[in-house]
Amino acid sequence: xxxxxxxxxxxxxxxxxxxxxxxxxxxRALLGLTCRTLDDRPLDxxxxxxxxxxxxxxxxxxxxxxxxxxxxxxxxxxRDEVVLYFLLAGESFFYHRDGVxxxxxxxxxxxxxxxPFSRGxxxxxxxxxxxxxxxxxxxxxxxxxxxxxxxxxxxGAGADPHAASLARLVGATVRGDAGSAERAEDEAxxxxxxxxxxxxxxxxxxxxxxxLRFIEQHLGDPRLSVPRVAAAVGLSERxxxxxxxxxxxxxxxxxxxxxxxxxCALLRGPGTPAIGxxxxxxxFTSHAHFTRAFxxxxxxxxxxxxxxxxxxxxxxxxx
Length: 319
Fold this sequence. Notes:
seven-stranded antiparallel β-sheet
């Protein structure tokens, strides 16, 4: 099933109607809230939304404003849900009945939306959002959803690798780059379990999945290396090597194998891509190294594979 994607922007409506229409859009697409601006300037905001069967994904950018979720919103809200806010830019004050949190860029806020709260963005914001039904969240986490908001780093020093992967997935989903709705939802559920369950957070398999996701997302970067992957998933190089050794492979081998597989797919594709361009797209800085590695892996030179793939009636190239 294809993802359902939607875009909304206040730039497309009259200034005096922006707050009302912003509230209406969010009530339908994400979460019921009351909004007010902090000065006389019109609200400048846009939102990208993607919906799967059970989960809602969004990317939000807005000028300075305050939002509030009241008892009325909660009673009218329908499903009992948990919302994850991944703050990308701007600082956010989160007011709840037991106090106030300051959320900074790179931090994930986990919020029980069955409780009243307000959020303030004095300098505007940009964030990713994932909305999860409470039974789904609690089933994955193996414990009740937190009644008080909690934070977790997803970017920068000390970032949780699973939260980082989840943020990347939310971003890819609202861009339409995550594949089908089923694939996006399945991957999000796996990452939620890895990030919030004790078993998932401590699992070597979960760290390996996080490392492989990071590798896939950075294959075209020639700077991709074992130290960068280890830092991204929050392990030492030795710990990461042990995780991959359990599968009788290494991080460096996985990087090379995935680069060569991507190169093979590009050479099999339509058109006649230049060998040097394919090598660069797959993170190789040396044409000669790419050719040697490709020949050793597939038993055929890149140019020969490209030529045979374009020939009418050609046999299927090596996998």
